[in-house]
Amino acid sequence: MAAAPFVFPQVRAVAKPAIRIESVAIDFEEFRYRTPYVFGGRSVDRATILNVHVEARSRDGRVAHGFGSMPLGNQWAFPPDAMPNENTLGAMRRLADRIHFITGGFKEYGHPLDINQALEPDILRAAAAVSKELSLAAPIPKLATLVTASAFDAAIHDAYGKSLGLSCYECYGENQMSRDLAPYLNADFRGEYLDRYVQRKPTPRIRLFHSVGAGDPIEQLDVRKPIGDGLPEDLPSWIAHDGLTRLKIKLNGADLKEDVERTVRIDRAAAAVRKTDWKYCLDFNERCKNVAYLLDFLHQVKERAPQGFERILYIEQPTRRDLKSDRANVMHEAAKLRPVVIDESLTDLESLLLAREMGYTGIALKACKGQSQAMLMAAAGQKYKMFLTVQDLTCPGASLVHSAGIAAHVPGVAGLEANSRQYMPAANKPWESRFPGLFRITDGTLDTSRLSGPGLGVGP
Predict the structure, then answer these.
(1) pLDDT value, residue 410
(2) Of the residues 154, 170, 187, which one is the last residue of a structural domain?
(3) What is the C-alpha to C-alpha distance for residues 265 and 242, in angstroms, rounded to an integer?
(4) Less crowded by CB within 10 Å, the N or C end of the chain?
(5) Spatial distance between the Cα atoms of 373 and 173, rounded to a whole number of angstroms
(6) Confidence of residue 79 (pLDDT cuts 50, 70, 90)
(7) Based on the domain organization, do 31 and 113 belong to the same domain?
(8) How many domains does the chain have?
(9) Cα diameter, the chain
């Protein structure tokens, strides 16, 4: 079931706090990775970060400045199979310029959820227009459109909270929202508001999932060319350095023997440093050709490493992201063994409901799909009793603070993947002194206790 068509709530919004966008500015930053991040059959060694600055005005004339930031992440959101990396990145940059124009031209007062829903049709049309103008071999997918728009949405939520002097997570109740959740989701949510599903105050500590990329050294003997920058260079060193207890294991999905051997080897390396408390996420990045591959993989891991199998907490996006064209790959049997989580597939409520029908039992929330979507999907995931986790997009700086805020304010999440400290530490440097508990890890957790400042909590 799709969400109801959007009608801007001009009448009901009058009595509620609301903002209007006065101006929008954007800029880009470029960073090289410390070491390439290999996942889903591709290697990423650099990032383009989109920063968005919004000036907004409340009905009573107060001016607030919001900030949003997000890596464009084209190699994940817009896979390069059909065209070169520079084409997909160029398309997303062009789309960012178009969204800049669309957002700056919107002059209705509203809650951030209303503004987001009002803008989305124009943003989707802009993506189609950019695809045509650039004669792209494949159109900009909805996932890449969401990623490009996410920094704008974040800046609007940030500005709204700052206009009230509140954390944006304190702005999701009946006193702020113009209407209940039903128009954003479906009739199951009639009479409910986001504050039913989102905590006003942050959980003080969140478990960190450390990513073991497909090209990352597992043991010291795997280090072929030392980086020599003082940071760990193999998995046991990272475990000792950060006090890790959670791992996200990237798998290839194309060679069963290799995937099983890699998982068993990582489990042994982890257990050699610490025997207990381990939990793993297995991420195939949609590379398994079918669910039979996944089931065979799980049975072999259980046979080879029974304790390692018990440490598997959940499995992420094993098969193709386009669920409609891959209906045969249902996850009912796999989900009996471990929660199976959608990530790339999750772009709206319709995709979530289809995934549930196909046997998926969990969802990955991501700041890079927009604060509005993250909050709505968090509500839907809880309503439908799904497993919840928060993932990032090698998010550094402000985007990591944003991701950590989501993890800390959504009840019951399994943890947060946060890998910019591994692959892009240079982008984190300006933020380390402001949020040391997020950027300097010692006990395998992120200190999220301070994420209660105005707006998204990223600061001025």
Answers:
(1) 98
(2) 187
(3) 20
(4) C
(5) 16
(6) confident
(7) yes
(8) 2
(9) 67
In angstroms, the CA 135 to CA 58 distance is 41
Looking at the fold, whether 217 and 330 belong to one and the same domain comes out as yes
In this structure, the strands spanning 205-212 and 63-71 are unpaired
Residue 107 has which token pair?
A: 């002059």
Q: What are phi and psi of 366, to 5 degrees?
A: -140, 130
What is the residue-averaged pLDDT of the chain? 95
Which pLDDT does position 8 carry in this prediction?
A: 57
Shared domain for 146 and 273, answered yes or no, is no
Residues 388 and 315 in one domain: yes
Query: Per-residue DSSP letters for 254-268?
Result: S-HHHHHHHHHHHHH
At 112-145, the pLDDT tens digits run: 999 999 999 999 999 999 999 999 999 999 999 9
Q: Please check whether residues 123 and 59 belong to one and the same domain.
A: yes
d(CA 187, CA 265): 48
The kind and range of the H/E element at 365 are: strand 362-366
The owner of tokens 């160029």 is 90
Same domain, 271 and 308: yes
Q: Are both 88 and 211 inside the same structural domain?
A: no
The string of DSSP letters for 288-350 reads -SSHHHHHHHHHHHHHH-HHHHHTEEEEE--S-S-GGG-TT---HHHHHHS-EEESTT-SSHH
Question: Cα 429 vs. chain centroid, distance in angstroms?
Answer: 21
Asked if residue 295 lies in contact with residue 276, where contact means CB atoms within 8 angstroms, the answer is: no
The CATH number of residue 89's host domain is 3.30.390.10
Query: Which pLDDT tens digit goes with each residue over 390-429?
Result: 999 999 999 999 999 999 999 999 999 999 999 999 999 9
Residues 174 and 228 occupy one common structural domain: no
Domain that holds residue 419: 196-447
pLDDT, tens digit, 9 for 90 and up, residues 138-192: 999 999 999 999 999 999 999 999 999 999 999 999 999 999 999 999 999 999 9
Q: What is the mean pLDDT of residues 307-314?
A: 98
Report the candidate in 375, 346, 430 with the shortest Cα–Cα distance to residue 147.
Answer: 346
Whole-number Å distance between alpha carbons of 437 and 202: 14
Q: In what order do the strands lie in the sheet with 63-71?
A: 19-39, 42-58, 63-71
